[in-house]
């Protein structure tokens, strides 16, 4: 009977409320695989406010529930409305795809949804999920023999008994026509008459940041040697590296700051290239379809770098970001721009 419930599921709930953009976007192929296997079913996702934005207008989901944990602490009536909304969705199957750590909140949301089939993870390596008993179906995950397995594939592994598969592992943000047009106009204004448009993101976790002064040097060379227009994206915690970039740059770039995520993503979609540290904006940029060059140091690019032929990454030989060569970064960016301008150029 449980297997029939899975195969005939008409409503599916995915609980992915980790508060990290990257964690959400690497799970998009899981949503794509669900849509492929259950084309006529309704698919809903539970997300936190920060990672819900990329899922609006998304082609693979029908409903989005936003779990605002911090707000709910002071507004219990809203928490009650959230759980009533999830229960009113009446999921046949709830999935909690853990790949890095376990979340008590996610497990409880799946259980409280009332789904008769609840699919989760019992173990990741030696770490046990204390609430796995709330699931009706569990899987034990162990990637010790394949430590570089990409997080996208790990999310598919975590779906366990659904046996999901997809040949398309791209990350993806869905845009409305209005968002795309607004992004196009903003990108064209920045690009002006220059042949290409390059976005840069110099922020991120301190250990994952390439020196902002080197970003500035690359930006100057992209403008002077390749004629590119350059813009800089920044968030509320990026003021330090942005200030260092501006102090070192010969020419002040356009600064895309203070906008919500989706308008920024729509601008990036129309760029020729996005150069970024390993941070949430790396995943956002790749999910827009913009060719993305990612810089890695202490983290594993085989697990986290964007997938797809249009994206590349560079890895510090020592694991320290400052050991990435400025010339190597500029040459890789230049190669990607030339391929973008002329698809017949070999990559």
Descriptive report:
The protein is built from 15 helices and 13 strands. The protein is α/β, with parallel strands linked by helices and 347 residues long. The chain folds into 2 domains: 2-162, Rossmann fold, CATH 3.40.50; 181-341, Rossmann fold, CATH 3.40.50. β5 and β6 (127-128) form a beta hairpin. α10 (212-226) packs across α11.
What's the gist of this structure?
By secondary structure, the protein is α/β, with parallel strands linked by helices.
Keywords:
single chain; about 350 residues; alpha/beta; Rossmann fold; 2 domains; seven-stranded mixed sheet; six-stranded parallel sheet; 15 helices; about 40% helix; globular; disordered C terminus
- CATH architecture verdict of the largest domain: 3-Layer(aba) Sandwich
Fold-level CATH name of the largest domain = Rossmann fold
User: What would you give as the CATH superfamily of the largest domain?
Assistant: Glycogen Phosphorylase B
Order of helices and strands: HEHHEHEHHEHEEEHHEHEHEHEHEHEH
Q: Unreliable stretches, pLDDT < 50, 5 or more residues?
A: 343-347
Strand proportion: 15-25%
CATH classification, class level of the largest domain: Alpha Beta
